[in-house]
Amino acid sequence: METPFPPFEPNGPDDSARGPRLREIPLRLVFPNLITILAICAGLTGIRLAFENRYELAVSMVLVAAFLDGIDGRVARLMKATSKFGAQMDSLADIVNFGVAPALVVYVFALDQARSLGWIAALIYAIAAGLRLARFNVMAERENKASWQSEYFVGVPAPAGAMLVLLPVYLGFLGMATDRTFAFVSSIYTVFIAFLLISRLPVWSGKSEGNRLRRDLVLPMMLGVVLYVALLMSYTWEVMVFTVAAYLVSLPFGARKWRRKYGTLTIEEPGVGDDDIGRHI
After folding, report:
1. Domain CDP-alcohol phosphatidyltransferase C-terminal, which positions (predicted)?
2. Who is most buried in 30, 72, 99, 215, counting CB within 10 A?
3. 14 lies in some domain
4. Total-model pTM
């Protein structure tokens, strides 16, 4: 059926008046973002399971979220599908999976018995995780990066912080009484982990020196990884407690190595301090 008043176009149809056309996007560009969305779903589901007192599933979902959030960037780089949109999605997923979800799970499991002190501790950790991620993004956007950035983190990275802050939950699963005293001690521990996140402590990343491995150590390392995974599947919470303890014990050694090389206990590199933060808020 013809319109009674057709548009007046003396020079023919004008396609520019129709607005931008939708273009097709390759599936490889979408796949990494789907992993990020699944990570957010896992983190939020972990929060729901914690409020339903299904704590083991809740912690498992948070750990799954952290795993997915850790591989989405690598998948994007392997598939040559990196984008600014994906980077923004990844940042939003990080604050949920490494900040909000672990804080709420540990609060519901243990910190709530400390009342307001427990809630304040959970808030401090979540905010510290957000600040840590913001600092990481600012440093990653620099055009001229310091040579040490390929070898050290400034403070404990957020994924490791999520694993560390859940230690009270692991201990509870192993039978430790989650009474009021346990809640107060867990609150202090949560604030301590928050401090490690935003500190300038040099934390060895293992990126630069881990690129090459002696030939005679390849097979023992592979066997060690298999053994660790097997133990993790069979004795999950015992292995998680051991992993947290080993990571915390390793921090002074990384700082000691930094001091021997650079002569300071903390990273005081220009641009990581208050002036740099102020410019990017």
Report:
1. 217-252
2. 99
3. no
4. 0.79
